[in-house]
Write a structure and sequence with these properties.
Length: 264
């Protein structure tokens, strides 16, 4: 299997705290790769380093063999990295379809004067963008809510809207930070089905999630972080049975969920 993303000795130091500490991760092209770990383990920080939202303290990062260690976020977006956020980020006052279109604006060719004057070329592009956004909304089962104000959507719908917006940039690697957070069991199951369909579109998935059943079911490979360090890695079973992982989770609510997944 080819490696799409390779992180080597990735480190992020905040004042007095190593949030990510010499972490190595290899994400295979076409895989669904999970990142798990207790609260504060460094999962979101790792995502921020991969998407370029935060600069690294040290380490290297390559995407498809290309060094992107110092590449700014927009360049990584251009190279095919997209993400969703743990705390949903969207334009609440825009409609659902408009939010999806913001995900593709870096790709629109005509801009500036053409858009101000609404020249035919711009209008054509805008129509094509809207059509594509509608297709994506159908894909995430939100087509009937296209004209709803985004802030009025339920939590689960907002999470799926974020996925549609991330897909609008045609990513090769999609980072999902707790996509099932706040979802009820039915929504979570549907999300699993949706993400499997995303994976079938040749999009590699890297996801952070606390819902153990969800992670174990969906992921080909899982990396476990604790206090900024990688403490385990492997297939779902291997990770689930790893004593270091169980110990890291002991005393947390997730330990109970892990035990439940173990018995399942
Ligand atoms: N900008 C920041 N400045 C200082 N410390 C930070 C910053 N961002 C995160 N941290 C700290 O870094 C550590 C890792 O945080 P991070 O958000 O990456 O954890 P996480 O694994 O995503 O946790 P959770 O499961 O709660 O989302 C925590 O101790 C957190 O308080
Ligand atoms: Mg987090």
């Amino acid at each position: 299997m080819t490696t799409l993303l390779s992180a080597s000795r990735l480190t992020k130091q905040f004042t007095g705290l190593l949030a990510v500490n010499e972490v190595d991760v290899e994400v295979s092209a076409g895989s669904v790769h999970g990142i798990i770990g207790p609260n504060g383990a460094g999962k979101t920080t790792l995502f921020n380093l991969i998407s370029g939202l935060l600069p690294l303290t040290s380490g290297t990062l390559t995407l498809d063999g290309r060094d992107v260690t110092s590449a700014p976020p927009y360049q990584r977006t251009r190279l095919g990295v997209a993400r969703t956020f743990q705390n949903i980020r969207m334009f609440s006052d825009m409609t659902v379809v408009e939010n999806v279109m913001t995900g593709m604006h870096t790709r629109l060719k005509s801009s500036g004067v053409a858009s101000l004057l609404r020249l035919p070329g711009f209008r054509r592009e805008e129509r094509a963008a809207r059509d594509k956004a509608m297709e994506l909304l159908a894909f995430v089962s939100l087509a009937d809510k296209a004209r709803v104000r985004s802030g009025d959507l339920s939590y689960g719908d907002q999470r799926r809207l974020e996925i549609a917006r991330a897909l609008a940039g045609d990513p090769r690697l999609l980072l999902l930070d707790e996509p099932a957070a706040g979802m009820n069991p039915t929504e979570t199951r549907d999300l699993g089905t949706l993400l499997r369909q995303v994976a079938k579109r040749d999009i590699t998935l890297l996801l952070v999630e606390h819902n153990m059943g969800f992670v174990m079911d969906l992921c080909d490979r899982i990396t476990v972080l604790n206090f900024g360090r990688k403490i385990a890695e492997g297939g779902p079973r291997e990770v689930r049975d790893n004593p270091a992982v169980i110990e890291a989770y002991l005393g947390t609510k997730v330990a109970a969920r892990l035990a439940k997944a173990h018995g399942a």
